[in-house]
Amino acid sequence: MADTAIHESGSKKNSAQEGKYLTFALGNEEYGLEILKVREIIGYMNITAVPQTPDFVKGIINLRGQVIPVIDLRLRFGMKQAEITDQTCIIVAEVNQSDKTFNAGLIVDRVQEVLDIDNENIEEPSNLGSAVQTDFILGIGKVENTINILLDIDQVLSGVHLNETAADTAPVS
Question: Which of 32, 79, 105, 148 could form a disulfide with 90 if both were Cys (CB 3.0 to 4.6 A apart)?
Fold first, then answer.
């Protein structure tokens, strides 16, 4: 649809749009990820640590022959690391960095559901005020009595050179 394209200013800030979002929890907070960025959801598995990476980069996994970097979203957001439970899972998402596309695993406490959020139920992140860094937030989704922070996963992982960690992976098609 033409009306869901990035606005004329070219700003990604106004690109939050209605659509389907996979929602997940980190502690008591609920987040959403564009469903088109989600490749699959897998149970938590052994992760091989990679030396000299930031604390939130937990390491890499071998998923059907593809080496995928794994990020603990709690640690990326400055939250306390949680215990691994039977609900802990890894969301494999498509990430774009430096004109390269690859998959990355995101450790979350639990996956909630897929929500269809209308434009009128998405607020711009700029409404949070200038003191809050919002470049990784597509919008704030309001569904019934809950708030979901809709993430721009490319921005969440910007500055983390994951494409180098995933250098030996096959490109995403």
Answer: 105
For residue 3, tell me if it sits in a domain.
no
Domain holding 111, by residue range, is: 18-165
Q: Examine residue 6 and state whether it is found in any structural domain, yes or no.
A: no
Domain CATH code at residue 73: 2.40.50.180
Q: Spell out the per-residue pLDDT of the chain, length 173, in tens.
A: 333 333 333 334 444 588 999 999 999 999 999 999 999 999 999 999 999 999 999 999 999 999 999 999 999 999 999 999 999 999 999 999 888 999 999 999 999 999 999 999 998 887 555 555 678 889 899 988 889 999 999 999 887 766 555 544 444 44
Number of domains in the chain: 1
Q: How far apart are CA 58 and CA 167, in angstroms?
A: 16
What contacts 108, CB < 8 A, 6 or more positions away? Answer: 24, 25, 26, 31, 73, 88, 89, 90, 91
